[in-house]
Amino acid sequence: MAAVCGRLLLRSGAAGAVGFAAVLPARTRAFKNVYLFTGCFSSSGYRVSSNGNAAKFQPPPKPIIVDKQKQKEEKRFLSPEFIPPRGRKDPLKFYIERKDMIRRRKVFNIPEFYVGSILAVTTADPYASNKASRFVGICIQRGGRGLGATFVLRNVIEDQGVEICYELYSPRIQAIEVLKLEKRLDDNLMYLRDALPEYSTFDVNMKPVTHLDHEEIPVNKLQVRMKPKPWSKRWERPKYNIKGIKFELPEEKMKEAQKWSQPWLEFDMLREYDTSKIEEKIWREVNEELKK
Amino acid sequence: MMPIWTKSGKKHAVTLLKVQDCHVLKYISKEESGGKTSKLLVGGKNTSPFYKTESAMEIFKAAGVPRKQKVTTFNVTEDALIKPGTPLYAAHFRPGQYVDVTAKTIGKGFQGVMKRWGFKGQPASHGQTKTHRRPGAISTNKAAKVYRGKKMPGKMGNIYRTSFGLKVWRINTKHDIIYVNGSVPGHTNCLVKVKDSRLPTYKDCNKNPPFPTFFADGDEKLPEDLYDEEIFQFTDPSVTY
Questions:
Q1: Cβ contact A167–B188 (<8 Å)
Q2: Which of A252, B18, B42, B136 is the 20 to 30 Å CA partner of A90?
Q3: Domains in chain B, start-ordered, CATH in brackets?
Q4: Distance in Å, alpha carbon of B207 to nearest chain A alpha carbon
């Protein structure tokens, strides 16, 4: 706005010109470089509005500042262990469990992470030299609901694949740091056991990768190459619905795997469990309690 | 069921039992019942007063209490009698105490001998003709009869069974919930009878329980949560060695 005003002043040379102006090129050939001013435009001397009366001074509208902080609040993350499973249990049990989980979260910070993020976990170990042991790995699975929620970290240390299943709310965990926050194409990365070991090796002393708060979580669209068959599970079958593997199997094998597809499952209404409303309610409840 | 951690970092599984509208219904004296001790009838969980005969409703009317779904008897000593109509709360039990829990097990219907009694059955192949899950022999030649109580297929489950010596870890006085160690017979949301343990090892475990029971309108104001000494409370920092 200010820049436009400045340009007007330079071009027209009229002092005190204020207001909007739509700058249109003149249509006559003789006055090629003359610009016609249209729209509301007033200088300090002449202040006449359309109906002839003396117009009141209209200040320019204030610029709209987009607050990135407010935008961040719209991004909601509710840890999956808060969502109660479908069943006949009394909701009071889940409410009491949630209160315990919030009490633990107030004392100990459990960061936001997804399957595919790289975490470093320090636990208290009575048999370790420092009484604490640190393990770095990629999260391949998040299971369990409520206080018994777990996550499995996988890493390859000295050519030996190691997976450790930690309980999120166990009091023996001293710290959980997210070294790299990212998502993958699948919810469950158990196929990394049958993938080439380079996809599961992560440096134990890697530095944490900074992630800005307002940015979206990056999705790593990596397609993993597998070891030769036999695998621990037949990952090419549609029941696992894996998108993160680069299948180098022949076409006939892929077609044969589609024989086990169950296309009617997506239309089965009894299997639907819409958690959006439950999630909203629980998110509001959890946020209120955590702010206290 | 929920996990619970002790201060040393060990995990135990715990069952939550809710004390829902329990009232003392009737006092039966020793001579009346014919047993060794006097009895107290206790009812749990309110239900609708309809679809029941007048005679069944008499007990509830006399106690001034809505109709209960389950009525059980407790053998009580003379000094622990409670007036009919008093409500019973979860604070009747204290953490560190040991209890026995009785309930009807999950009904499995008519089951075969392998599931009901754990028989081994017969091999799947190698010439077995139509015999894979059968009991095999049911008696000997000399007996010339089948003994009474022979394990055979039949209705399994839906009978009363007790889990003995379960430790009480925590009591929630606001919602009347007892956290009991381990598993308990019965399905989720089934009605359960909780008693002080009768095992000889836990005879002296109840240190100063509320006697005869915890009265809500009494003087003592309990905190919302009562914990056992060994429990790790979530307000504490993480466990270190």
A1: no
A2: B42
A3: 2-107+161-227 (3.30.160.810), 108-156 (no CATH)
A4: 27
